[in-house]
């Protein structure tokens, strides 16, 4: 018999919104730049491909991130998305960033399994990470941003350089 999990309606993700770690505390967590239009559209795609609540999403600008993941600096979070695996309701100490996170997702989400052989080819990790970094540092130029995430010191200026 299948156990049905009941979730408080207040914790349901908003219609068209992303599931948060509060909604699904046992899901792997994807930390992304919520001010970036490109990033937001890609995590919406991931949420749609998920379907089984394997993933929860949170913007790097959310206070939850700095409170829970003190080992990740703002600069690291601005450079790439991070995926934090969850085992039985507790986040692991593993921090999967950039192309490594995408590689993990190709095995975690059945709808991405078709991409797994490409991401798991020997000796391609460096090329994948390089390609990820090239897109990440140009993400605001590709699709713009929702609001100004830069602080007075210009902490995100590196994303506007070629």
Question: In terms of topology, how is this protein built?
Answer:
Elements: E1 28-32, H1 37-50, E2 55-59, H2 63-68, H3 74-79, E3 82-84, E4 86-87, E5 90-91, E6 96-97, H4 99-108, H5 116-119, H6 125-137, H7 139-143
Parallel strand pairs: 1-2
Antiparallel strand pairs: 1-3, 3-6, 4-5
Q: Key features?
A:
about 160 residues, alpha+beta, two-stranded antiparallel ribbon
Would you give an account of this structure?
The protein has 162 residues and is α+β, with helices and mostly antiparallel strands. The protein has one domain (18-160). Helices cover 36% and strands 12% of the residues. A four-stranded mixed β-sheet has the order 2-1-3-6, with helices on one face. Strands 4-5 form a two-stranded antiparallel sheet. The longest helix is centred in the N-terminal third of the chain and has 14 residues, at 37-50. The termini are far apart. Mean pLDDT is 86; it is low at 1-10 and 153-162.
Short description:
This protein is of the alpha+beta class and 162 residues long. Helices cover 36% and strands 12% of the residues.
Please estimate the helix content.
25-40%
Largest sheet: 4 strands, mixed
What's the count of strands? Answer: 6
Mean pLDDT: 86
The total number of structural domains is 1
The rounded Rg comes to 16 Å
Q: What is the first-to-last residue Cα distance?
A: 56 Å
Oligomer: single chain
Q: Which residues sit in consecutive blocks of at least 5 with pLDDT less than 50?
A: 1-10, 153-162
Tell me, briefly, the overall form. globular
- The number of helical runs is 7
SS strand fraction: 5-15%
Strand order, sheet with most strands: 2-1-3-6
- What is the SS-derived class? alpha+beta
How do the helices and strands follow one another from N- to C-terminus?
EHEHHEEEEHHHH
């Amino acid at each position: 018999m299948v156990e049905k999990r009941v979730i408080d309606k207040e914790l349901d993700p908003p219609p068209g919104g992303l599931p948060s770690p509060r909604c699904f505390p046992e899901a792997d967590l994807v930390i992304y730049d919520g001010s970036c239009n490109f990033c937001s559209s890609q995590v919406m795609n991931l949420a749609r491909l998920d379907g089984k609540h394997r993933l929860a999403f949170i913007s790097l600008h959310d206070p939850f991130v700095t409170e829970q993941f003190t080992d990740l600096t703002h600069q690291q979070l601005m450079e790439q998305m991070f995926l934090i695996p969850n085992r039985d309701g507790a986040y692991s100490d593993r921090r999967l960033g950039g192309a490594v996170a995408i590689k993990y997702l190709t095995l975690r989400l059945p709808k991405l399994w078709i991409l797994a052989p490409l991401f798991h080819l020997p000796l391609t990790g460096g090329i994948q990470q390089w390609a990820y970094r090239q897109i990440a540092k140009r993400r605001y130029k590709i699709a713009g941003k929702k609001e100004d995430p830069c602080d007075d010191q210009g902490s995100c200026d590196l994303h506007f350089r070629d």
